[in-house]
Amino acid sequence: MSQPTHETGSTGSAAHADGALQLNGERDSITAYYRDWAATYDEDMSAEGYAGPFITAGLAAMAVETDSSVQAIDVGCGTGLVGRLLHQRRPGVRILGVDLSQEMVDVAAKLEAYASVQGGVDLLQYAAADDAPTFPLVLCCGTLTHGHVGSDGVDALLRLTEPGGHLAVSVRHTHSAEQGYPAKIATLADAGTVAVVSELINAPYLDNGGADYWLLRRR
Ligand SMILES: C[S@@+](CC[C@H](N)C(=O)[O-])C[C@H]1O[C@@H](n2cnc3c(N)ncnc32)[C@H](O)[C@@H]1O
User: Fold this and answer.
1) pLDDT value at position 11?
2) Whole-angstrom Cα distance, residue 161 to residue 181?
């Protein structure tokens, strides 16, 4: 399936958002792309109508009490757009932000929202480690998409989610359809691995395409 792009030759914010979809899923190219984008990422994504963080943080907020102080991990946290929104609504939640890109987390580190951030973290390697930690709340927005992380991303995120804990995740809609995400989540639910608390298919995400979102409870 071809990746979504703007119809005419895109420039500025649109060129950045479209260019990210053309990455090849390799750690070095993703790291270099976001190193060069970090300084203008927030502004560019705002110009492209980025709704993903609002929906992902909203789903995560549904999973915890207003005065909760649980430990959360925001995987592929980037510059911290999701953490900032969750922190506004659930200020007691202690959020660890991790991302491949050091330059992106350097921006997130300046926010009050994160208890700590760590760059150079690859979701798949981090979750596969024998001593991988688990969290009562896991968030991931914008990272399960073309050229980034494939359908093994959800398995990795669920490995980081403790039993009874929640995962709030976005998957770009075209990537989700290509990788069979809805069927995969349904299979996990049938097997009793997760309960689907909320599912949104092709909901608002970016001007150049929608996303599927799930709030899952790990059983
Ligand atoms: C589109 S940005 C989303 C950032 C942020 N979550 C947001 O919604 O604004 C995608 C992020 O995923 C990170 N990323 C890509 N592949 C990754 C991987 N395998 N492990 C961890 N982070 C990854 C990138 O470095 C980038 O910061």
Assistant:
1) 57
2) 18
